[in-house]
Design a protein that fits this description.
This protein has one domain: Phosphatidylinositol 3-kinase Catalytic Subunit, Chain A, Domain 5, CATH 1.10.1070. The protein is 41% helix and 21% strand. It has twelve helices and eight strands. A five-stranded antiparallel β-sheet has the order 1-2-3-5-4. It has a three-stranded antiparallel β-sheet with strand order 6-7-8, with no helix packed on it.
């Protein structure tokens, strides 16, 4: 956890914590990453940032979603997580892609069904911060592949940021807590039937696996109390995920008034 060196201090925000660009040499290769950590002042706004990021990574990996690898790290005495950058020669934020790609997702995006799975996953973990800046794309031949980053404002981070308890009805209406959809995705989703398979995949994850994922997070990043809370959140939303997603379809896809 101590073999990273700081390249540049990128940002330090009162509410969102601190980000450093870091690198290390591993197996003869240089790896680059983004180190995030918070202090008690930040956690008033975002909760356990490192724990949220690490747990979201474990859950997304369990679902075989493309996501940047995240690992615990301690740099200059600060405990946090590093999100590893992929060594792609060309890397774009989703918002930097051209309009015709957004309008033709099945044609230009590799395995576009993973965007649908991502959408359902974000609902499950209460991700209030999915947007075109934290979905990265890179060219593969004539198409683009992609991967997910930045999940600090999900799980307990979302709960802390918006100020509603995890079991408040607020979290049952996606349009009430998040409208930051990545470009083209809401139009690509036409009906619940497209999303249903991914709802079922999440609902079929055994509770023992969820418990194991949560318990794998170090206590320095997620306290016993926070672990109990996030288990309740995940299990509750897992059970009613179909209802929450169907409600989004009704709210967002409702035809306009005549």
């Amino acid at each position: 956890m101590e073999n990273w060196e700081i390249v540049k201090k990128l940002s330090s925000r009162k509410k969102l914590g601190t980000v450093w660009l870091v690198r290390r040499s591993k197996s003869g290769q240089t790896e680059t990453g983004y180190f995030k950590f918070s202090n008690p002042q930040n956690e008033r706004y975002i909760g356990p940032l490192a724990g949220n990021e690490l747990l979201a990574y474990h859950l997304a990996s369990r679902l075989h979603l493309p996501i940047a690898r995240v690992e615990a790290a301690k740099i200059k005495g600060q405990l946090g997580v590093v999100s590893l950058a992929r060594p792609e020669p060309k890397l774009y934020k989703w918002d930097q892609l051209t309009r015709h790609i957004y309008h033709n997702i099945p044609r230009f995006i590799l395995r576009p069904e993973r965007l649908l799975k991502m959408f359902v996953f974000d609902i499950w973990i209460c991700n209030i911060d999915r947007h075109g800046g934290n979905l990265l794309a890179y060219p593969v031949g004539e198409k683009y592949d992609f991967y997910l980053i930045d999940h600090g404002l999900s799980l307990l981070g979302a709960v802390q940021w918006q100020g509603f308890s995890w079991d408040h009805p607020h979290w049952d209406r996606v349009v009430g807590y998040n409208r930051n959809y990545v470009r083209g995705l809401s139009k690509y989703i036409r009906s619940y039937e497209q999303l249903k398979p991914y709802v079922k995949v999440i609902q079929h994850i055994p509770y023992q696996e969820l418990e194991k994922s949560v318990d794998s997070i170090p206590l320095t990043m997620l306290s016993h109390e926070n672990k109990r809370t996030v288990k309740q959140l995940l299990l509750s939303r897992q059970k009613k995920l179909h209802t929450i997603v169907q409600q989004w379809i009704k709210d967002y896809k409702r035809p306009p008034e005549p």
